[in-house]
Design goal:
single chain, about 120 residues, mainly alpha, 5 helices
Length: about 120
């Protein structure tokens, strides 16, 4: 919702196209990952480690959001651009939290689970 709000602020304020493009791309990618996890497609398509792809997306999005939103806040051509920049910085924090939580969820050296309880 924050990504969509950021996108709508940038579009409504007639901000630079790069601002709206980044926010729109992040909104689309977030919706695709949400659908992937809701429909359990990550369990069916095992060719890719989906949480790792989600971490990669979150880190790259956070880097791009940092640059774009700082430019939007510094230049602040109007109030919509400023609101989009602030919402984008909130989205940046959420992307970093998502990446950290997913890193904690993925542990490559954990012991394998057993089907039957140990005697």
């Amino acid at each position: 919702l924050v990504a969509l709000s950021t996108f709508l602020c940038f579009v409504a304020s007639s901000a630079h196209e790069a601002y709206a493009a980044l926010a729109g791309m992040e909104t689309g990618i977030t919706v695709l990952f949400l659908l992937l996890y809701l429909l359990r497609l990550d369990k069916r398509m095992r060719c890719l480690l989906w949480p790792l792809a989600d971490i990669f997306n979150s880190v790259i999005a956070a880097l791009f959001l940092l640059v774009v939103c700082l430019f939007a806040i510094i230049l602040r051509t109007n109030k919509g651009t400023l609101a989009g920049g602030v919402l984008g910085l909130i989205l940046l924090v959420l992307c970093l939290v998502d990446a950290i939580l997913l890193c904690k969820k993925i542990r490559f050296n954990r012991p394998r689970e057993r089907n039957a309880p140990a005697k």
